[in-house]
Amino acid sequence: MALIMAFCTLIFNVLCLPLHLIKALGMYEIYKRVFPICLYRCSIMYNNKMHDKKKELFRSLREFNRHGKQLTILEIGCGTGTNFQFYPPGCKVICTDPNPHFKKYLKSSMEGNDHITFDRFVVASGEDMGAIESESVDVVVCTLVLCSVNNIPKTLQETRRMLRPGGGFFFMEHVVGEPSTWTYFFQHVLQPPWYYYGDGCEMVRDTWKPLEAAGFSDLKLKHVEAPLMFLVKPHIIGYAVK
User: Fold this and answer.
1) CATH 3.30.420.40 for domain 1-241
2) How do residues 95-108 score in pLDDT, each as one tens digit?
3) Among candidates 110, 162, 120, 123, which has minimal Cα distance to 141?
4) In what order do the strands lie in the sheet with 218-225?
């Protein structure tokens, strides 16, 4: 099975040679302007499918307002702002994303979620958020983002830096399937074209491992089967405490 998987993956890599060339020539940046439109439509579908799971996950956000002031949430890779509806009333939200073209979608999402206060939008990758002060936020949220960052441990290190002592990191991520399953097989075979379609998204990451090694004082993590297409069915959901 491993040899067949490697061979099929090689075939798809060869078929993706034009895409590899486009990226090498710097022309892939054009797609980054289009990607927010694609993600906006996909996010609506994802929210409909995962509404109950998101609602359950974010129910605990209020518990991290331990200083009695306005709850401050920072969202890494905020995209089109589809998580805003699940945030508690009165909280302040700082949005970050490496793609500046999401900003106009954020404005629309904020107008439709006036129960929260928009602080600012910062163009930054998850690995380098130096614009955000250390120990300045109560909660960091990250959904469907760790699949595409360049360095998960570095992103988690930045997360811990920004969180106040006792702050929470909330996550919901699709991950690699169990070995010897067809999901695992096709995740690896279709990874080359998926990478370009998803703007750097990788289906084959065992994201729970760097989370377990990140040095949080407490980690609540569970593996679930999301009601989605089989390639992104395997998910991890939970939160960690600094």
Assistant:
1) no
2) 999 998 888 788 88
3) 162
4) 117-123, 92-97, 72-76, 137-143, 163-174, 234-241, 218-225
